[in-house]
Amino acid sequence: MSVTKRNDAGAAPSVSLTDLFDEKSGTISPAIYADPQLYELELERVFSRSWLFIAHETHIPKAGDYLATYMAEDPVIAVRQKDGGVKVFLNQCRHRGMKICRTDGGNAKAFTCTYHGWAYDIGGNLVQVPLEQQSFACLDKKQWGARQARVDSYKGLIFATWNMDAPTLSDYLGDAKSYLDLILDRSEGGTEAIGGIVKWVIPCNWKFAAEQFCSDMYHGATSHMSPMMAASPDTLPGDPTDFSGRQFRASRGGHGTGFFVEGAEWLWRVGQAGEHVSGFDIAAAEQRTNLHRSGKRPVGFSQHMTVFPNFSIFAGANTARVWHPRGPGEIEVWAFGLVDKAASDAEKEQMRLMTLRTFSAAGTWEQDDGENWVEVQRVLRGHEARRTLFNAQMGAGAPRGEDPTFPETITNAFAEEAARGFYAHWQKLMTDVDGSFSKAGSYADAAE
Amino acid sequence: MPQNNSLQSATTDIVEMGRTITPALQQEIEQFLYHEAELLDDRKIAEWVDLMADDIHYFMPLRTTRGPRDRNLELSGAHDIAYFDESKASLQLRLRKLQTGTAWAEEPPSRTRHLVTNVRISTTAKADEYEVKSAFLLYRNRSERQTDIFAGERTDGLRRVDMPAGFKIFKRLILLDQATLEANNLSIFF
């Protein structure tokens, strides 16, 4: 990729933005995970310009149902409207900035600030101001509603952005949509959210988590050896190279996914203490997906995926999550379970248990991810450590697009092609001073 | 519900459902809880899992911050995601994970200290089963400087058995006093 060299006004990171990631040599400067000034720039150029995941449609089914969440560090409220639509607005009173909603979710008739009493309806419109007649000469309440984000959804997933010039969500997802469909459209009626959002804090940079779910099947055999051994001691394959998989790098947008296509059927049962999710017709679900062609299919939903920048899914465990950034060295993970609407109650119950027992704060798989990222982040306190380049060369040069069943993939799930796509897009945004790159028109330009 | 009156002397028997919580029973159950905590803190997880009855339901729901209209939803429900929703089999799977030597979140292992207090005992309809509420403070320290502190309440179902420990746990409801979990994982037991 070619990037214009420039020193960005208003931010002086310790290294040049154009040197932070070099696709040609496959190297990453660890400063991107630790530098506070780069982090501030990310809030502006990555998070305020991208589509960010908000909620599943089924989190807020009825008018007035709301979920208090975040777009990066900004608190927002997502509310179901009477017309069935969803509004997402800043959780900040326009008077002195107090939160207008101090609870996690529920059903509301209005949001009343507990500081001076300004009240907003469920659409975020300012509707009541104490002492308005007596004390405000002329307050145009229409001008002082809560700050609205732009909202769009794709197959049950609600996203929002502050970038009014951004492409539609569908264009933003681009060719990653057909891989999202593997999860979101694998059975009649799509998905629904299991109740409850697990929230926990990991002292690590958000990109470790987002990149791993985007691109990294590689770490599984080492990081997650213990739950595999514990769940399937008899059927553990000796050599991960026996698995055949694919990895996909979105042609633009920084999204990525990877999955096995054969050799890993046993993955399906790892969450169930050896029990299969009985009755759930995996083959029928896979038939439905628009990637089921010529007899090839992802095995056991062993699919990791990231929608740039910070929304990830792991289909094998029915989990979806946002990695909310909290400074360069901390994230809040907000994870929820996804199940097929068409599944029976018994199947949903098995999926629920699988989700919470595998990929969750106490999950036998996810426990070990937290451990890795925390240790890496701690190492990056070191001056020399922050200057010592990371290797992201795996699978470089592998041909893409040779498999008609899985378009735009490379023929090995153990690769970092998707990671390079993630960082290439990140770098494009970070070096885009005026935001022109993330506008709808320029977005459809040449692939990254 | 327990009828323990805080003004009662510790030496006074507490009559509940026609049966009696004697100081001896109070001490016996407290000693059982201390023994259980010792097994966890000494990393004798296999022995700890043995204290769980075959029908154990080990459950830690999520907690959320709710307004007055939704306060009844503060705890996640039976069909929602929870931190833990475990059977004997799934606890044994967690044990096997720890025994592999490659469970990196606990290898090298955490240093833990389970403090158990505020023990309140109720009798139940079954003569050999008790409901025991306790408060806990769980300190975890691992690696070089990572420190996590968890506080909360447990409601246990204890069943008297003919074993040296005296009881098995057939129910454990754990209420963690946090909404956003202030830790990078839950690789330990409560």
From TrEMBL, chain A:
<keyword id="KW-0560">Oxidoreductase</keyword>
<dbReference type="Pfam" id="PF00848">
    <property type="entry name" value="Ring_hydroxyl_A"/>
</dbReference>
<dbReference type="InterPro" id="IPR001663">
    <property type="entry name" value="Rng_hydr_dOase-A"/>
</dbReference>
<keyword id="KW-0058">Aromatic hydrocarbons catabolism</keyword>
<keyword id="KW-0223">Dioxygenase</keyword>
<dbReference type="GO" id="GO:0005506">
    <property type="term" value="F:iron ion binding"/>
</dbReference>
<dbReference type="InterPro" id="IPR017941">
    <property type="entry name" value="Rieske_2Fe-2S"/>
</dbReference>
<comment type="similarity">
    <text>Belongs to the bacterial ring-hydroxylating dioxygenase alpha subunit family.</text>
</comment>
<dbReference type="InterPro" id="IPR015881">
    <property type="entry name" value="ARHD_Rieske_2Fe_2S"/>
</dbReference>
<dbReference type="GO" id="GO:0051213">
    <property type="term" value="F:dioxygenase activity"/>
</dbReference>
<dbReference type="InterPro" id="IPR036922">
    <property type="entry name" value="Rieske_2Fe-2S_sf"/>
</dbReference>
<keyword id="KW-0001">2Fe-2S</keyword>
<keyword id="KW-0411">Iron-sulfur</keyword>
<feature type="domain" description="Rieske">
    <location>
        <begin position="52"/>
        <end position="160"/>
    </location>
</feature>
<dbReference type="GO" id="GO:0051537">
    <property type="term" value="F:2 iron, 2 sulfur cluster binding"/>
</dbReference>
<dbReference type="Pfam" id="PF00355">
    <property type="entry name" value="Rieske"/>
</dbReference>
<keyword id="KW-0520">NAD</keyword>
<keyword id="KW-0479">Metal-binding</keyword>
<keyword id="KW-0408">Iron</keyword>
<protein>
    <submittedName>
        <fullName>Rieske 2Fe-2S domain-containing protein</fullName>
    </submittedName>
</protein>
<dbReference type="InterPro" id="IPR015879">
    <property type="entry name" value="Ring_hydroxy_dOase_asu_C_dom"/>
</dbReference>
<dbReference type="InterPro" id="IPR043266">
    <property type="entry name" value="RHO_NdoB-like_C"/>
</dbReference>
